[in-house]
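Protein modeling request. Please complete all fields; requests missing the sequence field cannot be processed.
Requester role: graduate student
Desired output: 3D structure, token encoding
Chains: 1
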Amino acid sequence: MDLSLITSVFETLRLTPPSKLTLLEAQTFSLRHYPPTPPDVDTLIIGIDSHGLALQVKKVLLSVYPDEHGVIVVSGGNKKEEKLGEFGVGDFPPSTCLYIPSLEEGTSLESFAEIVAHLRAPDGCPWDKEQNHQTLRKHLLEESYEALSAIDAEDKTGMSEEFGDLLLQILLNAQIASETKDFNFTEVVKNIHDKIVRRHPHVFGDVKLDDVDGVLQNWEKLKEKERSGLALSGVAGKQDDKGMLDGVPAALPALTQAQEYQDRAARVGFDWPEIEGVLDKVREEIEEIKQAQNLEQVTGELGDLFFVLVNLARWRKVDAESALRGANLKFKRRFAHVEKRAKEQGRNLSDMDLEEMDTFWNEAKKMEM
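Delivered output (369 residues):
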């Protein structure tokens, strides 16, 4: 990298080089989709020599920086201040550089990891210092459900906040593991990085797949090879007896767990050839419920019906857990209207008959149309 060019750029900028600076060749962005630099550090990109490369640089940067973020273009000893969203117009001599001032403090993963590590440090937070994987388990579960609630409500602000809360749980658990020398966050990232690359040969390799079904089938084949490889190497220990469905967490909600079981089995061909087979099975299970003689039989047959209904949802490309959560929310919303209308009349629900409550229920349904 030409240090004289960098010196010249900062002379043109009339800035003292910052204590932290990321220097990048523009060609680095040619095949990227995400900036290779933390946004809370100033960045200098050199060698933007064409309109096409400038647009590619901008496209990648805009995945992190806002349109209105101020940048400075340096070319031929001159500088031009503009918004990042406006960058990419005009000619670009080979010596063109782009200076990107950092975003505010706390916008990089590294800075957040430092905050979490500080919470666990001797001068950190008494509560955080007392936590371990088991005590944090309930918080991870709660934050996961809160994130799902934000998704169901299509609350974009809420999703942003809840995803941050989930990230805190991941980093906090990784920090605890780092302190006990079990693993650290770098290993967590490296493991998932390698797994994603390995399981997407159609993206990062030369495997050709035509559709989603092909991707899922190949995914299962790759996972099967991984399980076999672990068993043969002796790394797996007790893992070598595990089957395809053993990797589905036991703590998943029942509908989600059922759908995941069925998805995995279907990837290796254990599935109805047509949806009519599923519909016939639904009818069969309903008849068996009618014929059940006691609570134990009813419970078993209802479980079978729920399971086949999940299969029907899967065939229709519907997430069963989300569908039921949506139905629950709809019921809650309509019943709240019934309560409200009863209150407006100065009455208690317990004093009303079903027909009266049903009238208010139908009002709520019409309001949703």
